[in-house]
Design brief:
By secondary structure, the protein is mostly helical. It folds into 3 domains: about 105-410, no CATH class; about 430-485, no CATH class; about 490-519. It has 21 helices and 5 strands. The chain is globular, with a radius of gyration of 27 Å. It starts with about 30 loop residues before the first helix and ends with a helix.
């Protein structure tokens, strides 16, 4: 049995200090002893189902019951109950810090110690022998939290104005903690060491069973490195989006074919994060059609399945990302009116949330730009400046610099689209019109109109991930001599959805009638 201490006598670790009044890092309630011993046993026995239940349900229940506003017991306090197992203690501390970030406000030292713990944990996975099977949910949460804590640290470090001398001294001393190269190197190393790119390639040829088994190893091996490597590709996309490097982010995601069901979709948080960042990166690269298509699919999926996640600890996050993606979809459709790509259910939700604003966004006046600004600011990632601060006086906050730069670039793009809306309006009315006549309607001279038409061609085309030029145009045209010919792109009507909805309604009416007892 571990020794328990009175609060005043308990020795403290620098990473798990006695914070809230009454918190004793060395006091372990019986239910927590039972939790760690059973979790340890199930991990040793590779009982993935039981591990998942304990991780997803028991940990949350105990946190709500005992640790609503205090940390869990220190790792030293529970180590005796798990044979001082080094890897288990690293996993426990990973959960310890994640709970601390979620429920409390970590100190700078705790942020640094969490970085050290991730370094130790990933080093073991990369260079040690890890003979475990862990649930995909836990492995995703590790990568997701790792990137979140990096983002949080960069935001924290960038607020230099009110830092104490002690905090500045710690930032100077531990300048490698949460270093952007360190974060990228770990995610890159997990991907390379796991050989996940080769595994996914071999799977296409029928030589591997990764997606079919959801990444689990049923032959007695471990899934930890493979699945961490897989999720690290999503982590890399997210980090590069936070840095504003959208090309590299999408390049990192290329091994995963998001048009197919994959392991990324087995965990709701991973599924949403993947499509949110993929869609946002495509929006910023003017690949609006790709963004619209994927936002539509994920929003329809969330609409149909969100009731199954109501008891999940991530339910609020799911709802928040859902709202942000509707805002991004509103932006995409305002810049590229390809409504035919959107399912009627999603479109109805979108019109309910943003119908009025989208109508105003088409006007391209000051009010429209204010709405673009508002929606972008609400829905964009929390951009970061990864460089170390200047410690020279006067100390300044620079945590908003990256966001302001991305907003400025986005609004500059919106401003360039202003003239295109006028061209689009006329092209929708005519099947053919002379350059002179259109110039007259738009109140510009012919050379200026030709420039505008060239700009329209440029802005409605983008380069995809394979280097091919793709069109985002809802209305296209070509010029023959001095005549502009509009290419007819009538959307194919989809009757199937309509009939399916009517069938469902009819079945509902029949069921209601069956319930009515005729007298």
């Amino acid at each position: 049995m571990a020794t328990t201490y009175d609060y005043d006598d308990a020795p403290t670790r620098h990473d798990e200090q006695t914070g809230p009044d009454g918190y004793d890092p060395y006091f372990v309630p019986d239910s927590v002893k039972s939790f760690v011993t059973h979790l340890y046993r199930h991990i040793r026995e590779k009982n993935v189902y039981e591990i998942y239940e304990m991780y997803e349900t028991s940990f949350q229940t105990l946190s709500d019951r005992f640790f609503k506003d205090s940390p869990w017991p220190s790792v030293d306090a529970v180590a005796n109950y798990v044979d001082n197992d080094h890897v288990f203690c690293l996993l426990y501390r990973e959960m310890w810090f994640r709970h601390l970030y979620a429920r409390l406000s970590p100190t700078l030292k705790q942020r640094i110690d969490s970085w050290d713990n991730y370094c130790s944990l990933f080093q073991v996975v990369l260079h040690g022998v890890v003979n475990m099977q862990l649930p995909n949910q836990w492995l995703w949460d590790m990568v997701d939290e790792f990137v979140y804590q990096f983002q949080s640290f960069c935001q924290y470090r960038a607020k230099m104005k009110n830092k104490t001398e002690q905090e500045i001294a710690l930032l100077r001393q531990f300048d490698q903690a949460w270093n952007v190269y360190g974060v990228l190197n770990f995610l890159q190393a997990l991907g390379e060491k796991s050989m996940i790119i080769q595994i996914l390639e071999r799977e296409k040829e029928g030589l591997e069973q990764f997606t079919a088994t959801d990444g689990y190893d049923y032959s007695g091996g471990s899934n930890v490195l493979k699945v961490l490597g897989y999720f690290s590709t999503v982590g890399l996309l997210r980090v590069h989006c936070l840095l504003g490097d959208y090309h590299t982010g999408l390049k990192c995601l290329l091994p995963i074919d998001i048009s197919q069901h994959g392991v990324y979709a087995t965990v709701i948080g991973s599924h949403i994060s993947t499509i949110y960042h993929y869609g946002f990166a495509n929006l910023m690269l003017r690949r609006y059609v790709d963004a619209i298509r994927e936002f539509n699919k994920i929003l329809l999926y969330i609409y149909k399945t969100k009731q199954y996640h109501q008891k999940s600890s991530q339910y609020e996050q799911i709802l928040k990302k859902n709202e942000q993606m509707y805002a991004l979809l509103a932006i995409c459709l305002s810049l590229c009116p390809q409504v035919k790509l959107v399912d009627e259910t999603v479109n109805a939700q979108l019109r309910e949330k943003y119908g009025e604003k989208m109508a105003r966004m088409q006007r391209y006046d000051d009010e429209a730009f204010a709405i673009y600004d508002e929606l972008f600011s609400y829905a964009c990632p929390k951009f970061i400046t990864p460089s170390a601060p200047s410690f020279e006086e006067p100390l300044v906050n620079y945590n908003q610099d990256a966001y302001r730069l991305q907003l400025k670039l986005f609004l500059y793009e919106v401003k360039q689209q202003q003239l295109l809306s006028g061209v689009r309006t006329f092209l929708k009315v005519y099947s053919a019109i002379s350059v002179g006549k259109l110039a007259n309607y738009m109140e510009v001279d012919e050379p200026t109109l030709r420039t505008i038409l060239m700009s329209y061609k440029h802005k409605t085309h983008a380069v995809d991930s394979e280097g091919k030029i793709i069109s985002n145009a809802d209305v296209d045209f070509y010029i023959d001599d001095d005549m502009i010919h509009v290419v007819d792109t009538k959307p194919v009507r989809r009757y199937g959805d309509y009939f399916l909805r009517q069938i469902v309604k009819l079945e509902g009416v029949i069921n209601d009638m069956d319930r009515i007892k005729l007298e």
